[in-house]
Amino acid sequence: MTKACISWYSNSLNQPTGYGTQSQQVIQRLVRQGHKVAMMSNYGGEGVNTQIETGAGKIPHYSRGMSQYSDDVLPLNHQHWASENPTLPNFIVTLYDVWVLKNPALDKLPIASWTPIDHQPAPETVLAWLKKPNVTPIAMSKFGKAMIENAGVESEYIPHAIDTKIFKPTANLPEGISGREFVGGDDKFVVGMNFANKAGGFIHRKAVAENFLAFAIFATRHDDVMLYLHTEPYGKQSGFVLPNILEACGVPQSKVLFVDSVAYSYGISQKTLAAIYSAWDVGLFTNYGEGFGVPQIEAQACGVPIITSNFAASAELASPDSYLVNGQPFWDAGQHCWFNVPNVQGIVDALEQAYQRGRKDFPDTLAFAREYEADKVFDEGWKPLIEKLASK
Description:
Oligomer: single chain
Largest sheet: 8 strands, mixed
Strand content: 15-25%
Structural class: alpha/beta
C-alpha cells in the first residue's frame, strides 16, 4: 500500500459537528494505515498550531486563518506539511462546502473534495470547483454522484459512516439512567429530532416549521405522544427561535422536551446519544435537502425507523421499515437550483402509521444501517481511493 502525506481540511476532529465526527473517523483510520495526516482546521482550532489526538496517535493541528473558512492559510499550511514529508505523494482532502474555497493558490495543488450535494441540479458554484483539473470530486451520496455526473463531471463515491460499536440499541445512558426516562417517554410514543439549528437567512434546511406543524396535528389525536428535540433552541448560530415556531404551530409545551442546552453546547457523548436515539419510537428527519444526513443512519443503527424526505440523500438513507415523505420543489434563488419542501400532511400520515405500528424490534432497520459501518466504508471506499490519489 502506498503511503501518502494528507492535509485534511474540515471542522477540527475534536468538534462534535457532523464534519468533525466524520473527520475523526476517517483520520483515525488513515493514521492507523501509516499515512501522514495533518488536520487543517476551519473551525474548532483557533489561534495556535498544535497537535491533536486522533485515537490512533497525535497529528499536527493547523489553526484556522483570518478568512471565514480558512482558505487563506490552507495552501501554505499544506505546503509546509508536504515539506515535512518530502518523499511521500501529497494532496489535500476537503470535507466541507466547496463554494467557500476561493483562494487561487489552491488551483495549483492536488485536491480531493468530499462534497455535499443537497440541491437539484448541483449548484453552479459547486460544479465550477469540481470541474477544476486539479480536483477529484468525491460524492458522499448516490444522489450527489448522479447530480455531479449529470453535469458531465466524473466523481468517486464514498458515503459518510458511523461506528456501529457505539451506535447500537442501548437501554441506558452511561450514567445509568434509562434512555426512555431521559427523553420523558416512559409511557409515551416518542418522536425524536436531532438537527443543527442553523439557517440560511429565511430558509431552514431542516424543515423545522413543517415538522413542528405536522407533529402539532398528530398530537391533537393522541394524548400519549412526546416530541424530543436534540438541538439548540434559540438559534444562537444563525438558526431559528424554535419555541416561537412550536407555539405558532400549536404544539403544547407539555408535549415537547428539549435536550439540556448547557450539556448540548459542551458536547454530548456518542454513547449517550446512542441511548437517546434508542429511546425514540420514530425519528423525524424530513428536510429541504441533505448532502448526507448522518443522524438518520445513527438513529437506525440504534433500531429506530425514521421519517424522512423522498429527496436528495435522504431518499437513499431510509430502511425498509422507515417512511419516505414526498414534497414539492422550492426554488433556492441563492444557489440557483431546487430544494424540496416536505408535504405536511405526508408527515402527519407517516407519524400516524408509526404510532399505529408501535414500539418493537426492527431487524431490517439495523441491517440497513450496518451497511454504513465505518470500517466497512473505509475498507471499500477510502483505501482504494487513497491508493489512486497517491499514484497520480
